[in-house]
Amino acid sequence: MPASVRLQSASILVFEVQQVVRGGSPKWSCDFQSNIMLKVSKPTMSTGCGSTAPPAPRDAGASSTVQQEEFTLDRAAFTRTLRVVALRLPTKLCNAAVKQLQNHVLRLRHVKAILKSDDGNDERRVVLLATEVEEGKTGDDITLADLPAPVKAFVEAAKEEQASDPIISSSPSSPISLTIHQVIMDYNCFTVEEVLKQFFAPLQMEAPTSFETIDHVAHINLRDAYLPYKRLIAQVILDKNSPRIRTVVNKTGNIETRFRTFPLEVLAGENNLEVSVRESGATFHFNYAEVYWNSRLSTEHGRLIHSITKQFQARHPRSPLAACVVWDVFAGVGPFAVPLGVKGCVVHANDLNPRSHHYLLANINKNKVDCHVTPYNEDGRVFLRERARRRLPVHHVIMNLPASALEFLDEFSAQREREEEGKEGQEEEEEEAEGLFDYLEERPYVHVHCFSKADDPTTEALAHASDALGCELLNGKNGVSVHRVRDVAPKKEMLCISFPLPRYSELRRGGGGGKRGTKRTLDEEGKGDSKAVVQSNAKEE
Predict the structure, then answer these.
(1) For residue 131, what are the β-bridge partners?
(2) Per-residue pLDDT for 444 more than 90?
(3) Which of 23, 128, 223, 537 lies at 20 to 30 Å from 119 by C-alpha?
(4) Range 95-110 burial, b when 16+ CB lie within 10 A, else e
């Protein structure tokens, strides 16, 4: 029996032998893929041998400083004309045909499965089937015996029903017949994944289809092996997501600055990184290249905001949220601070990056929460210590700097300096020592984010937090909890540790090392201390 080629689905460009209609061996799948490879991969630099074929895959660890070839996209290489079997039938039978033959109807992006009849009869329609007909065949060469059993059964049942009704059978639109229809498949018919798979499959490389969306910007993070194809990848992403996406960027280096920004390269589209993002009931405007923002953390932002407000209301059922005071130590452009301000909380929001502070102030004004949120542009240690020295109230402390926030926990174990005159030289008794945060009658909750590469990330994170704080933290005990935020890389997880801040006496009795129980002054820490911590840890992210 002769054979045909059927398109499996619109989501995967795979072809398989199904049945009938064409003779010979169906090699269209392989030939089409090779054709795309030869046309799409056009190097802008010589490979050294004059070949137009793509180079062998690069080692993912190879240096990105080596001069590399770049490949451009030829959209015309994806154009293909298909000749498929079609059912010509009365309009009223179309819906029943599509429903009963859903596994045999042609389904392609930008291609309608039901069309007007090609014979000019407005009472009839054409339903395209997922069966290809080879060149040279005509509609007269196709019979019901050649079609899949469900199609044959549907046509025979419809004809019997029509024959039993003399009114329908006498209508000029009643006959059901088979015909051939030409379908033009082009670049628009394929998704990002389908296009890139066609290119990278012969190279035995995974198609890099994932990206982060920030307003109109798509952010990809390509490994070195994909850098020769970076503009091709970016152009496909831009084409398939336009007009929503207007700019595609790639990160060209690690986070190595104390402001936690990373270098970006615009690969396709507009050179415009001014974005506006709506999240957690607030609107944020910023330049993506100047501040740190991760859209994948939107769920975590919403979770912690909800947790803070819910916990405060549970502890203070008769108090409005305007009585809830939050310190956001590493506020960025305000993903926690501004939505909390929208809900009515009082927020002291700090960030060391002057550009983050600039956009934080703009977002406060844009969302009209200037009466609730106060911005600061200070070092994290200075921010914590100065608020505590002034004995300002606080119910929750947010420390969202996962690369190094744990290093700042020792601030909570700092001892308050004696303020009375003439007592500077007196030796204090152990039981008389007062911690910097002991003025708070109600112990605030601290929420600190961190990374872990351990097999047991929860245990490791709690161990590091306990060592820095000076008090053992146990998950599930005394109000301590650990939330696993997300996987940021293979064997690297982001977590959020929440705990009520112990009193100074409890911190000093805690086991372990660290700086707990030691009298520390602002001069000893200094701004340089915090900056060095951020710089040394940021490379790990």
Answers:
(1) none
(2) yes
(3) 23
(4) eebeebbeebbbbbee
Count of C-beta atoms within a 10 Å radius of residue 514 = 18
The 10s digit of each residue's pLDDT in 288-344 is 999 989 899 999 999 999 999 999 999 999 999 999 999 999 999 999 999 999 999
Sorted by sequence, the CB contacts under 8 Å of residue 471 that are 6+ apart come out as 413, 502, 506, 507, 509, 510, 516
What's the chain's average pLDDT?
Answer: 77
Which tokens in the block code for residue 194? Answer: 């389908």
pLDDT of residue 97: 85
Rounded CA-CA distance 496/283 in Å is 24
φ/ψ of 499, rounded to 5, equals -160, 150
Residues 72-112: pLDDT tens digits?
A: 788 888 888 888 888 888 888 888 888 888 888 888 878 88
Query: Tell me: the pLDDT tens digits for 1-36?
Result: 333 333 333 333 333 323 223 333 233 333 343 333
Alpha-carbon span 200 to 208, nearest angstrom: 9
First to last CA, the chain: 60
Could you give the CA distance from residue 95 to residue 127 in angstroms, rounded to a whole number? Answer: 10
* Cα–Cα distance measured from residue 262 to residue 239, given in angstroms and rounded to the nearest whole number: 26
The Cα–Cα gap between 131 and 148 comes to 9
Give the type of residue at 162.
Q
**E strand residue ranges, 273-411:** 274-279, 282-287, 325-328, 346-350, 373-376, 396-399
Question: Could you give the strand order of the β-sheet that contains 247-251, starting from the edge strand earlier in sequence?
Answer: 212-214, 217-220, 247-251, 264-269
> How far is it, in rounded angstroms, from Cα 74 to Cα 374?
53
In 3-state terms, what secondary structure has residue 33? helix
3-state SS of 184-221? EECHHHCCHHHHHHHHHHHHCCCCCCCCEEECCEEEEC
Angle, alpha carbons 439-440-445 (nearest 5°): 145
Rounded-to-integer distance, Cα 526 and Cα 348, Å: 21
Q: What does residue 238 show for φ and ψ, rounded to 5 degrees?
A: -65, -45
Tell me how far apart the alpha carbons of residues 249 and 231 are, in angstroms, rounded to a whole number.
10
Percentage of the chain beyond pLDDT 70 is 73
Burial call 253-280: b when 16+ CB within 10 Å, e when fewer? eebebbbbbbebebbbbeeebebebebb
3-state secondary structure at position 383 = helix
The DSSP letter of residue 373 is: E
477-536 pLDDT, tens digit per residue, is 999 999 999 998 888 999 999 999 998 888 755 444 444 444 333 333 333 444 434 333
Residue 427 confidence (pLDDT):
52
